[in-house]
Design a protein that fits this description.
alpha+beta, eleven-stranded mixed β-sheet, three-stranded antiparallel β-sheet, 24% helix, globular
Length: 568
């Protein structure tokens, strides 16, 4: 199957595969490979997709988004709405009813107290929660009774589904994490590596940045699921090896995020062992622009913080010229083929939220040069590098180690050199780069570089929480354990005010218009340079049934329904 047809089919919608009919644990082992290895199983202490998705086998939210982007209950009995009385008429609160009979994997009851504890844990100002944007505007979370929890907001909130919805906002057990509040959160190694959960599997061994083994949860709420007795979750290597391990050798059953050139995928599929699956969600490959100074000459604790603004990346002439110099159609062609599209936007999907204000499908080297010349940013000493206020336009450009990203780096370095910007390229092991270790200098959150490239997305189809990532107070810094979603440290009070308006606005059309304005403000204001709207591309074994690719939540969202096909 050609990638184009594959993607078009995925966009049109995929019917759910037949569910597992076997007894729990009767299908043996399933092997999963994520070439970006998980480093923690607590999504609240990591913004990395690899960590969020690995944790989703164990800990779950009250509700998820299905493959069509629709909200479905998981631990909740139903989705609260105004119509069913779950959302207050004045839109200031949402009340969740928990499905009865759910237990943690240790056999203890799952209750509303665990939900409240999770909110308190993430909202602790000393904790550095990586998902705190989900709780924007929350003033209280109250236990009404054992199976009822009420979330109250500081103002009318038409979209109250930030907390406890999607793989990025699961529930953790109050009893297990009771001593892990605030600044102690990163120190709780046992809890962060071996969380007690309500999901289909429990951790038997966790080796950070290497391998995780799981076994079926004996106390899972469906007595016939999961079909697999164990899971081997291998991390590390590269996307090429992961794809081959599923489609050519059959060594693994599922490979995630095959960020490979289209011809490579086609060649792998000829191996006959596996099938690629793909679909377009809101995933965007982008270059983040550090608004603060990452110079190693600054004292530790002050690098990449608001104490020291960046000497030139905040200048519109600089970041606009950098964007103009990039040939996005070429990047799409060499990196993704039909699995990529040119985008100027931070939020390119769903379609209703895709801004049409900007165009960026044509490279303009001469225009970029003129823009810099007109701003007086010129090369005064003849070394080929322009200066702004005496500071040479020399940057450290970092990303994770990956063949496509290194190709992108090489091309963009050359294009930027043509307009007088010198780049030092740096690539970091993906497991480290996307990890959440507050002591590491190499995480994307710490951002000890001038620019960095990666892809990011969000759960669900409403981007309110995602757009909240660029709020001023969400910047990672020492006092938040270097956690936070505002990776660029970009800050615009007008943006914050408009986002507050979005949080109070009902109606899809009105919300979409505000969201598009927020998108434009961040991109035009120099927070980032969007490059490619990427399709999610993974692969599964031909003997693995039940897989339904989900671009709106964790890819492993329905692993409880996976099973081994017979007669294959």
């Amino acid at each position: 199957m050609k990638l184009k047809a594959l993607l078009l089919g995925a966009i049109a919608g995929t019917a759910l595969a037949p569910m597992a009919m076997a007894e729990r644990g009767s299908d043996g082992n399933v092997s999963i490979i994520y070439w970006q290895a998980p480093s923690i199983l607590n999504p609240f202490l990591s913004g990395g997709t690899k960590d969020v998705e690995a944790a989703s086998l164990v800990i779950e939210p009250l509700a998820r988004y299905n493959q069509d982007g629709n909200m479905v209950p998981y631990l909740a009995a139903e989705i609260p709405t105004v119509e069913n009385g779950g959302v207050s008429e004045d839109l200031t609160s949402i009340t969740w009813k928990i499905a009865p009979g759910i237990t943690w994997s240790d056999g203890t009851p799952f209750t509303a107290a665990d939900v409240k504890f999770t909110a308190d844990y993430c909202m602790d100002p000393e904790g550095g929660c990586a998902q705190v944007t989900k709780f924007e505007g929350v003033t209280s979370v109250e236990v009404v009774d054992d199976l009822t929890v009420k979330v109250t907001f500081d103002k009318p909130t038409p979209f109250p589904y930030g907390p406890f919805v999607g793989g990025e906002s699961p529930i953790i057990q109050a009893a297990q994490f009771a001593d892990c509040m605030g600044a102690k959160a990163p120190e709780c190694t046992e809890q962060n590596f071996n969380p007690i959960g309500t999901g289909p599997f429990v951790v038997t061994e966790f080796k950070p940045n290497d391998v995780i083994t799981f076994k079926a949860n004996d106390n899972y709420r469906d007595p016939n699921k999961p079909a697999f007795a164990t899971v081997t979750f291998k991390g590390g290597g590269d996307a090429t090896a992961a794809g081959r391990a599923v489609m050519e050798t059959g060594e693994f059953d599922y490979a995630w995020n095959l960020q490979l050139a289209p011809e490579v995928i086609s060649q792998m599929q000829e191996g006959g062992k596996g099938t690629p699956v793909a679909g377009f969600g809101p995933l965007v490959e982008r270059i983040m622009l550090n608004q603060t100074n990452p110079s190693p000459e600054l004292p530790e604790g002050e690098r990449s913080t608001a104490k020291h603004p960046h000497p030139f990346l905040k200048d519109p002439a600089v970041y606009k010229a950098m964007s103009m110099a990039i040939d996005r159609p070429l990047l799409v062609e060499i990196g993704y083929g039909q699995a990529g599209k040119v985008t100027c936007n931070w939020v390119p999907a769903p379609a209703a939220f895709n801004s049409t204000t900007m165009t960026c499908d044509k490279q303009d080297i001469e225009g970029a040069k003129k823009l810099l010349d007109d701003a007086g940013i010129v090369d005064t000493d003849g070394d080929g590098v322009r200066e702004k206020d005496g500071v040479p336009l020399k940057i450290v450009y970092q990303t994770s180690t990956n063949a496509v990203r290194q190709d992108f780096q090489a091309l963009i370095k050359e294009w930027w050199s043509q307009i007088g910007i010198e780049s030092e390229l740096r690539n970091i092991n993906a497991s480290v780069f996307f990890g959440g270790d507050p002591g590491s200098p190499d995480t994307f959150q710490k951002f000890y570089a001038d620019v960095e490239m990666y892809a990011n997305t969000f759960n669900g189809t409403d981007p309110q929480s995602y757009l909240g990532n660029m709020l001023c107070d969400k910047a990672p810094r020492p006092e938040t354990q270097w956690q936070g979603e505002n990776i660029s440290r970009w800050c615009d009070p007008e943006y914050d005010a408009l986002h507050a308006k979005l949080a109070q606005t009902a109606g899809l059309e009105q919300r979409a218009e505000i969201a598009k304005k927020l998108n434009d403000m961040a991109v035009m204001g120099g927070a980032m340079i969007p490059l490619v709207h990427r399709g999610r591309l993974s692969a599964h074994s031909n003997t693995l049934g039940g897989v339904v690719l989900n671009v709106w939540d964790s890819e492993l969202w329905n692993i409880a329904d996976w099973y081994r096909k017979t007669g294959s």
